[in-house]
Amino acid sequence: MPETAVAATFTQKLEASRAAARVLATVTTEQKNRALHAIGAAILRNADRILPANELDLANARENGMSDGMQDRLRLDYRRLEALEAAVVQVASLDDPTGVVVSGTTLANGLRISQVRVPFGVVGAIYEARPNVTIDIAALALKSGNAVVLRGGSAAENTNRVLVDLLQGALIEVGLPFEAVQTIDEFGRDGARDLMQARGFIDVLIPRGSAELINTVVSGSTVPVIETGAGVVHIYLDESADEKTAVDIVHNSKVQRPSVCNALETLLVHQSVAATLLPPVIRKLRESGVTIHGDARTQALVPDVVPATEEDWSTEYMSLDLAVRVVDDLDDAIEHIHRYSTHHTESIITNDLARAERFLAEVDSAVVMVNASTRFTDGGEFGFGAEVGISTQKLHARGPMGLPELTSTKWVVRGAGHVRG
Amino acid sequence: MPETAVAATFTQKLEASRAAARVLATVTTEQKNRALHAIGAAILRNADRILPANELDLANARENGMSDGMQDRLRLDYRRLEALEAAVVQVASLDDPTGVVVSGTTLANGLRISQVRVPFGVVGAIYEARPNVTIDIAALALKSGNAVVLRGGSAAENTNRVLVDLLQGALIEVGLPFEAVQTIDEFGRDGARDLMQARGFIDVLIPRGSAELINTVVSGSTVPVIETGAGVVHIYLDESADEKTAVDIVHNSKVQRPSVCNALETLLVHQSVAATLLPPVIRKLRESGVTIHGDARTQALVPDVVPATEEDWSTEYMSLDLAVRVVDDLDDAIEHIHRYSTHHTESIITNDLARAERFLAEVDSAVVMVNASTRFTDGGEFGFGAEVGISTQKLHARGPMGLPELTSTKWVVRGAGHVRG
């Protein structure tokens, strides 16, 4: 890699990112796609550099007592590299979100105005020790015309160093500025803090990882942040819910992939159907090894329930655990959700039209559902073709984010000597 | 007013705002319009309460040595109340942005998804001693289904107290929760600071006022902020610019209303036409009393130019002052803009198609123009019918904001027992 990158100060690096962003903003879709294909090829070609670096990170992780789950997220092998390559090639196949005219008109005075999608400029990403995020975010940023400044978890630093090196090599290969992808890992914790304060250099910051990481970034940033993540997700079984629908949707929502943010965490059940619905719903969950944390009314109906504490209602287990509460009615369910939800996804299982509509209207979450598994809250499932993350904030983007959510707009005004009267 | 409002703590007030927001989110457009008409009527009916309170604020302001300009912004008279009433009635006539389906489809598996505009919830507003903002923001928030928490400048506290009182009275009159509009002025500086940190209570914070106020809010907030405002606005006179077009557009951009953010602050001129264009352009400006701050090349071409310092290039004068610089070419102009602009509005005056397109593509500002006055960057001029502000950030909204920019979206998913495979 160019030696300047090695010796650059933090500010020099960010200035280089800004300059690279100006170039990226006007290159063609074809050129960006060529870069993505070059990145894909470089991933497979450099397996013999990536995997030993990853082994080194894993050895350090074991020495530092990293949990098996976290080691699994850190680990790369050849199959995972193939999956990463496929993901990058898939991003190349997506529509370029930039240059799209979002709206436009000719004003009464003849002035023609149009609102056009443009890249943000420089996207910052702060994430944990998951090296696949390095490739994912770089590919998504590139396709949307953004430069990206990466700050990965220190436990993945050897892997990320190689990955950024090959990303930059691929950019150079196709004639794009290598500074379009940069890491600030070498600046350690100070670098992360400075990145959060880098107004004028970083246009938007995307934290990816634990609730703790996201909170740190949100509270420490003066740069605008897109908050993704935490899902204390609810399903409400209405008094009119079908037993089979309830059993299947609750099971799918909890068990299909318990470690992700759209997995079910709290089940609410109308009191009049709790006695008939809870036993079959919980039986099926237990067949898959789910532990039930229930309120007093749940404990009275089902054996071997762990008594739920106040804490359970706001816990994102991300494991085979489920909080269960019997509620008085729809109002009570909505109140519970209002109080404890992280406003990610909530679903009602019902056959009653009026209650379905009330739930959809009154529950204030990024995604509200009727008779569907909460696992459908996903950019891929929604047909976006890319997994940028799921926004739980209300500004800019809410819910699953596709490539257009990695862009801003600008207004283009064309006159013929127009002055304002 | 209800006594509870008087005794409420800061947190109680914000909790009441959240509850009011939940009500507002589901009331009909008709009901919101009734509230707006009631507010309009209350403004005129209560002139005998508003104007004396305003007199008191003005007397205090004079005693504290407030500048004439700021006193003028603070002052209300009957004609200004009529204008305020008219503005509120105008907001009632605008389309309700909520409930609009922004996008939607039926997925291959039969799941129907739609993205629907919904209110943010609770909007916070921090502004300076301009009591008209109290009415403006409350009306815009209400129409878009948002509750609003107001923190006005302390110099307007007597006026604002009466205004909030009549806003709440109008809400009660039409059967809406009065807590949909609240002030936290009684909590002083601590209140402003707490508002900026009120995550979970305030969904978005809008600062309105000086660059200093906006910077304070942006750096001090953990709540998402929509940044409006500062405009170091440029016009570039290309070598192919028409003299008359250049003279008229520069004059209009600088002189028509110099105190606002879309007024011209820096004029750049191509070196090959500086000698022919600058004299007539500056002559016309001087007829309107404009002071020219020029670089060395400008000074060589025009008499009586104040030498520009480095500081002039980044100054938003908001007065009859203009910085002028002769540049080598379009690249030099774009570099100057990149370095000094606040990315609000920039315009090129040219007859050359290729250079027009390059300027529009490469200048990274909220609004980029060709052959038009920068004064057109305005929600009213763009046909939005409302003046929410002009965003200079890239997240969520960029450029003039209309009512839709005061909303978020939510995804509504309708299934028939769908589970993910």
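qc> The mean pLDDT of chain A is 94.
qc> done
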